[in-house]
Each structure stands twice: as C-alpha cells, then as structure tokens.
Design a protein that fits this description.
The protein is α/β, with parallel strands linked by helices. The protein contains four helices and five strands; from the N terminus they run βαβαββαβα. The chain has a single domain, classed as Rossmann fold, CATH 3.40.50.
Amino acid sequence: MQKKPATFTRVRAAGHRPRILVLGLGNLLLGDDGVGVHAVRRLRERGLGGVRAVDVGVAVLDALHLIEWADHLLAFDALRAGGAPGTLYALEVAGVRDEGLHYSTHELSLVGALRMPRRLPGEIVILAVEPACIDFGDQLSEPVARALPDLLEAAQRVIAHWKQ
C-alpha cells in the first residue's frame, strides 16, 4: 500500500494578516531563465503592500527561512513544459513531493527545496513562463518579455485572493 503525502490546512487567526512571500527564481545571466527575477522586480515596483517579494535567483536554499515564515508562497520561474515560448503556467503545489521529474531550469527545483523546511506555507503557487532561449545574455526573448504583463496580472489576482 502506497502512502499518500500528508496535507495540512492552516487556519488563519482572526485579525491576522497573511504573510505572503513572492520569490523570483532564475539566473539573470542566462536570458529567459531570469524571467522569475525580472518578474519579482517588476512586481515590487507596483508596490503591493503586505507582500514580501524577494529576488532569490538560483539560491533557493538561502530562502528556506522565508519559506518557513510565509503563510502563502508564490514563485516566479521559467519552466520547460513543451509549450510555445511565452506560454504561461500556473501550478499549485500540494503535498510537496518530488517524483524525480525536474522541469525547472535549475539544479535544485523549488519542489525539491520545499521538502526541506520544517514548516511549509499553507498554499504554494508557481507562476512560470515557457522560455525561448536559455543561453548567455541578460535580456529576455521577445515572447517571454511580451508574457511578463500577463504573468504579473496573474500574480496580482493570486495575491488579492490570499489577502481576502
């Protein structure tokens, strides 16, 4: 018999503002791989109060203390999933498990890192973009750059839902 991963639902205390964490993942020196960092920086420019937005880059392990702090986690990343460049993906991470499938462009996937904290956020969402080019350079490709406004709008909808 195979065990199912435990799932936890966190109940927010009355009057408690949810601790919302947004992580920007990726390498700015590898073109579209840096889309998560570009996205989190633009989100910060919009001034979303009550949200901690952090440029993590490829140092996911350095953010474990922030992940343990958060009630809700939203992460931006590049994701090779076979779609057309610039395709947006929304993934809800539940019962964090890593079955050896690594679609992230990083050595340690966010899902892999989420197996380490002692305390996980109640809700975890990854908003990702299909990259066109992951090669040396600090600019996003045209399809990924065009997808950024829609990515940010999706993030604002998720955050607004969590703030209710």
